[in-house]
Amino acid sequence: MKRLSQFAVAACLLLGSAVAWAANDTPVGTWRQIDDVTGKPKSIIQITENNGKLEGKVMQVLLSDDGPHPICRKCEGERKDQPVEGMVIMWGVSKDDDVWDGGKILDPKNGKVYSVKLSLTDSGQKLDVHGYIGISLLGRSQVWERMQ
């Protein structure tokens, strides 16, 4: 009986570590967006997957030049003059080997939409978010930190 309980504990530990590892091999989760200029946390982003495509939604704005609840004044279309909190700012991103790309990301500060490429680093605890126009060698990157 003692061996059975030891086996059960070991199996639970292995299963738990496998689940934790699997959770960190995808961008799906909650992320703290770090401003690439100031190095300070800017917002909380929730990345979800729907039919194999990732999308990112702003859950909370932490740092803004426009006050605590900014709106997207420079956005076009349905996002124009809408609150940034609750806004989908990344969409259509799909897995391509060890990166995720093929989608778009919106910068609510200037209202521009860029192509986006995502890469996990630091054992899945950081996400390199690279927005660009044209070729991915040009553009700018931010590092987002996974929230537990």
Automatic annotation (TrEMBL):
<dbReference type="Pfam" id="PF09917">
    <property type="entry name" value="DUF2147"/>
</dbReference>
<dbReference type="InterPro" id="IPR019223">
    <property type="entry name" value="DUF2147"/>
</dbReference>
<feature type="signal peptide">
    <location>
        <begin position="1"/>
        <end position="22"/>
    </location>
</feature>
<feature type="domain" description="DUF2147">
    <location>
        <begin position="29"/>
        <end position="146"/>
    </location>
</feature>
<keyword id="KW-0732">Signal</keyword>
<protein>
    <submittedName>
        <fullName>DUF2147 domain-containing protein</fullName>
    </submittedName>
</protein>
